[in-house]
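Hi W.,

Here's what went into the run:
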Amino acid sequence: MKFLSKYRRHKLATPLLLLFALFGIGLTFSVASATEAPKAVNAQAKSTLIEEGQQIFLKGCSSCHGLNAEGGAVAPSLIGVGAASVDFQVATGRMPMQDMSQQAMRKAPVYNEEEVAALAAYVASLAPGPRAYTNEEITWERDGNTAEGGELFRNNCAMCHNFAGQGGALTQGKYAPSVMGVEPKHIYEAMITGPQAMPVFSDKIITPEEKLSIIKWIKAAENEPNLGGAALGRVGPVTEGLLIWTFGLGLLIGVAVWLTAKAR
Amino acid sequence: MSARERIAGNVANYVDERTGAAAWMKKNLQKVFPDHWSFMLGEIALYSFLILLLSGTFLTFWFDPSMRHVVYEGSYQPLKDVEMSAAYASTLHISFDVRGGLLMRQIHHWAALIFMAAIVVHLLRVFFTGAFRKPREFNWILGIALLTLGIVEGFLGYSLPDDLLSGTGIRIAHAIIQSIPVVGTYLSFFAFGGAFPGEVFIPRIYIVHVLLLPGIFLALITVHLMLVWYQKHTQYPGPGRTEKNVVGYPLMPVYMAKAGGFFFIVFGITAFLGAVASINPIWLYGPYTPGQISAGSQPDWYMGWLDGLVRMAPPIETYLFGYTVSWNILIPGLILPGIIFTGMALYPFIESWMTGDKREHHLLDRPRNVPNRTALGVMSLTFMLVALINGGNDIIATHFDLTINQIMWFSRIGIIVLPPLAFVITKRICLSLQRADRELVLHGKETGRLVMLPHGEFIEIHEELSDAKKFTLTQHEQPKAIELVKEDARGVLNPKGIRARLQARFSAANAENIAKPTAAEVKELESGHH
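Here's what came out:
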C-alpha cells in the first residue's frame, strides 16, 4: 500500500495504467473471440437441429401453417414469432391444436423436449424473434418479490386471470386460462410473446425482474394452503352462494322437517 | 315438596310479587302454534340474525373502519409491505393474528348468506300458501322491508373490508347512484364526501352496518313477531281446523324445546360451514385500488340478480339538456328493482283487488288450488333466476365451456320469454294436480291389484281415501269470477269502466279451476261402482 501511495502521482503512472487497461481489454477480447472456434461446431449442430425441426414442422404443422411457415387461411404465419412462442405453444400442448375451437387449450404435449427444441430452432431460424428460456434461467425464487408480484399481478393480470390466477372468461368463448401449475419458463414466455388473446408485456412495461416477481407470486398462490377451509374453486361468491342454497339451506330445511315430523 | 321445588317456588314467587309476570306468562306460554316444517323457515332467519349479532360484535373488537393508508406488517407474507387501508389491514389482522378471528369472520359471512336465503324461502312459503292475505298484509310489508334492508345490510358488510372485490362492488353502487338523472352526481358526492373512493365512505357505512341497520332490524323483527303473536299463526287446512281456531302444540314446553334446539342446530351448521369452507378470502383478493379489477368479480348471491340485470342491459345512453342519462344502468340498477320490490310489497292489495276477496283468511291455500297466484310466483322466480344466472355468466362460461355472449343473449331473450312461459306451464301443472286430486277423491288410490270378475272383466282395485284425507283435498272453496256490470238496470254506464273490465278479466282467470268433487258426486260413487 505504501508503494501505491508513494508512486500514484508519478508521471509514468497514467501511461502505465492506460497500458494495463488496454492489455486487459485485449485479453478479454481474445478470450471472448476464442469461443468462436467451438461455436463453429455448435453452429453445425444447430443447423442439423434446424433441419430436424423443419422435418417435424413439415409433418406436424405445415398443413395449417404452410410449408414455409408462411401461414394459411386457418393459422397465422410463424415467421418472426421466435423460439419463445414455439416453446410456449408446443411444450404446453396448445399446439398442435386438436380442434379449431375458440382458442388452443392446454393439454398433454404431443412432442418431447428435444422435438420442441428442434421446432423452436427451425422457427427461430426463419426470422429473429424472442428466444426460448429454460426453467433455470427464470430465477424467480432468488430474484422475485412475492408482495410486489402480487401488486403487479392485480394491476396487469387479474382482470382476465382472476384474483387468484384461476382464469376467467373473455368475449366470444375466448378465455384466460388458469395460471396454476404452469412451468415458470412458460409463464415468462407467455408474457413476452402474448399467446392467444393475451397482450404482449414487453420488458419496458414489465421489466424482467418484475416478471420474476409475478412468477414468484403465482407460485406462492399455487402453494398457499387453503387457509379458510375448502377453497370452493377460488372464484368468489358464486360458489359460496351455490353451497349455501344446496348444502346449507338443504340441511337446515331437512332439520326443520325432522323437528316437525310426527312420531309414528 | 322437595327442597328444590320449594326454592324454585320461592324464587318464582319473589319475581312474581315484584313484576306480576305470572298471569301474563301463564296465558302466553300456553299459546298454541301449528306444527309444520315450512313454519320454521322464518325461524332460521331469526336465529341466523342472532348469530350475526354475536359474531359481528366479536369482529368490531378489532375491525378499524378507516381508509387511512397503512403499510401491512402482519403475518400474511404475500402482502408484506403492501400499502392498504386500515380497514383492509385490520381485516387481515382479524383473519391471521386474532385467535379464532378467521372462524368468526367466516361464521359471520356464512350466517349472512343463510339469513338472506332463509328470508327468501320464508317469503316463498308465505306467498305460495297465501299467508299474506287479510289480516296479515302489514306483516307481509314488514317482511319485504326486512328483505330489502337485508340486501342493503349484506352489501354494506361485504363492502367493509375494502378488499379488491368489495371495492369493485362499491364502484358499481357508485355508478348506480350516479345514474340517477340530474341529481346523481350530487348524491354520489354527498355519499362519498367528494370523488370516488374518497376517505369517508367506509367509516360511514360502518356505522350504518353495525348500528343503524341492526337497530332497525331489531325493531322490525320485534313488530313482525308481535304481529304473528297477536294475529295468531296461520295453519294448513285439515279436519278440525277452521278459520276460528289454531290446532297445534303449546309454546311451553313443546316449541320452547323445538325452537331452542333449532337455534343451536342453526348455530352448529353455521359454525361447521365457517370451520370447513372458505368464504370471502380477502387476503387473496388484495387491497382495493380503483385501477385494479379481477375477472369474475361477483356480489354475494342476494345481489347477484341485480348484477345480472346490469350485465345484460344493452348499452343505451341519451344526452338530454346537458345531462347524460345512462339507461343501461338506470333501468336495471334502479327502475326494475324499484318496480319489483314495490310490486312485491303491494301484492296482497293487488290480489285482493283482482279476486274481489276482502275476507279474513287464517287457513292456508295449497298452491295448486290457486293456480293464478302460484303461476305468478313461479313467473317472478323465473325472472329472478334468469337474472341471477346472468350475474354469474363469466363463471358459468369458464366452467361449462360456454361463451359469455351466448349466456348474455340467452338471458336477454330468456328474461322476456321464459317468465310468461313459466306462468302458462305452472298454471297447467296446477290444474293437472287439481284433476289428480279430483280423481283421488272420487276413485281412491290405485293399488295395482287386478281382479278378474266372474264374467271375465278385469278391474283394478282402488283404495278409498280416509275421510280426513278427502276433507283435506276438498275443503277449499273455489272462487267465482266477478261479473262485469257494464251498465246498471237504468242503462247508466259503470263509472269504473276499464278498471271494472280489468278486474273482471283477472278474477275470471283466477276462477279458472277444475271443479272439485261435490258431496253428491262422492256419495254417488260410494254407493255402487267399484
